[in-house]
Amino acid sequence: MLKLLSYPLTFAFFVCFGLTLVVFHPIQWICLTIFGYDAHKKSVSILNWFLMRCTNILGVRYQFENKQHIPTNTPLIIVTNHQSMYDIPPIIWHMRKHHPKFVSKKELGKGIPSVSFNLRHGGSALINRKDPAQALAEIGKLGDYIEKYKRGAVIFPEGTRSRDGKPKPFKPSGLKTLIKHAPSALIVPITINNSWKMLRYGKFPMGLAAYIRFKVHPPIKNEGNPDKLVKLVEFQVTKDIIQ
Prior knowledge:
This protein is an alpha/beta fold. It contains seven helices and eight strands. Strands 1, 2, 3, 4, 5, 6, 7 and 8 form an eight-stranded mixed beta sheet that branches.
């Protein structure tokens, strides 16, 4: 019965989601072209608040637990597990003070209103997952960028999303590259639960009534052996994943 109900609600969601992306595309362009970075960044934050509201059509609820006092004048390396594309709007909205930029596959850099524009012009790294040298070079540039401008870089070290919520082993190369290129950064682990349930049936229809939870863990100083740092961060992220 719940799956049957999801068909009309999914249609309504896609209409709302698509219209939001289309409307904010020219808004982003105007903000960036005429008013500059800060205006563009604010437009992206507001866009992602609206994208979260679109998911409420599907009965989605969010909890973003952040009890940490994270400074805004230092670069961050935000490390999280990955369960769906719907992980991203809450991170952008709730971590907006830290100017989150993403390590994203290059295919998302074209063809998607608002999303592609922000990835190309907002400071994120677009990587070719079939070309490790290109990928690490772009991630290195992102590390240099956040080190210089005190921004946040978001990386999903699993490499691809988990379709059932179970964590995949971290692929350490990208994270270690950020650690190297942003030596003053704080590493902020975040655990995500239940966003995979939005795709429990595949891309259509959408899953209903997911309660998506984010937990921000205490920041870790970028000090010591990078391999040990990666292991520590992986432990912090995965220990609270509900399986």
